[in-house]
Design a protein that fits this description.
The chain is an alpha+beta fold. It has a single domain, classed as 2-Layer Sandwich (Alpha-D-Glucose-1,6-Bisphosphate, Chain A, domain 4). Helices cover about 25% and strands about 45% of the residues. Strand 4 and strand 5 form a beta hairpin. The longest helix has 22 residues. The chain starts with a strand and ends with a helix.
């Protein structure tokens, strides 16, 4: 399953946006209002849960300074990645596309596609407000 958000314009340089996302504690600002729990476990991992959903632990998988940050599920039960693709536009302006990629059976994909799409769009919209 692959989900891509529309590109969001961020009023920060690509470097500042990358640094913001690379500091995992900042993800709390991007989370939806129905966040139930958010905790930074270490500099490379954080966990969160939305009301009525299980806890998810994300960890840094790859970093390409100022252009891409890849987070992935720490558990093998639901293997997926969340990628932020950052493109500099001007000195204090960039675009960010969020990409979700995961391998799920058809039934699971059908159940989670809508909530994940909504979650990704919320992250993207909130990123545009930083």
């Amino acid at each position: 399953m692959f989900i891509e958000t529309p590109k969001t314009v961020v009023a920060k340089s690509a470097e500042n946006t990358f640094d913001f996302l690379n500091d995992l504690s900042n993800f709390e600002q991007l989370m939806p209002e129905n966040i139930d729990k958010f905790e930074v476990l270490n500099e490379n991992r954080f966990l969160f849960s939305l009301k009525g959903m299980p806890e998810i632990v994300l960890e840094k998988k790859e970093q390409f300074p100022y252009s891409k940050l890849v987070l992935g599920a720490a558990s093998d039960k639901l293997p997926f990645t969340l990628t932020a693709d950052i493109t500099g536009l001007q000195e204090n302006k960039c675009e960010v596309a969020l990409l979700f990629s995961g391998e799920f059976n058809a039934m699971m994909a059908m159940m989670i596609k809508s909530p994940i799409t909504n979650f990704m769009n919320t992250l993207s919209n909130n990123l545009g407000k930083i």
